[in-house]
Amino acid sequence: MASGSPRAAGCSGERPKMTRKRIGVLISGRGSNMEALLAAASDPAFPAEISLVMSNRADAAGLVTAASQGVATAVVDHRPYGKDRESFERALDARMRDAGVELVCLAGFMRVLTPVFVGAWDGRMLNIHPSLLPAYTGLHTHERALNDGVRVHGCTVHFVTPVLDVGPIIAQAVVPVRAGDDPDKLAARVLRQEHRLYPRALELIASGAAWLENGRVMYQDAQAMARATVFADET
Description:
Blueprint: H1 6-9, E1 21-27, H2 32-41, E2 48-55, H3 61-68, E3 73-75, H4 85-98, E4 103-106, H5 115-120, E5 125-129, H6 141-148, E6 152-159, E7 169-176, H7 183-207, E8 210-213, E9 216-219, H8 222-227, E10 229-231
Parallel strand pairs: 1-2, 1-4, 2-3, 4-5, 7-10
Antiparallel strand pairs: 5-6, 6-7, 8-9
């Protein structure tokens, strides 16, 4: 039997070491969703590791959090680039490729990305949005949901596309709207579910249990699809 065969490679009885996807996280501030991803990735069984946390602001508090956990950090300040967004993004791209980043997670990164950058990371960049997309793209999602009188709200993890907040949906968490809710109260409950949902969505993609195919997210089985939906138990 050839020494390179699968059977020979495993004849020692040892399980092959899992290859974890290398993740780059982009932040602009505290990065609470980044903290949730870091916590999940601290488990060696999680299929992804946070290899780089990068910000467009040197004073982003999330950089301190990441560094305290031994994660590499970097700053690419957008201001010196002025209106030259593509040069700024080339600098971001270079830092991530130098770090061997395979997947990118946006976690409160307050810069609109150009189609060139998005295209370079097509199918490999995730974002979390505080609404049940396709409803309430853009800003002020909680206020708008309350004004419309919806009974459920929530958050969505999706692949990033050149059009803001319309990328293929990976996972969603549903949060009931309570009597007496205001935007702040609703936002706080949705944020708790964001911290729960984002690691789960990343796990699905990094493990290969979900993937992008012809503009839609596919799941390997019913169990993976079920994990892509969270119903918050908040009555």
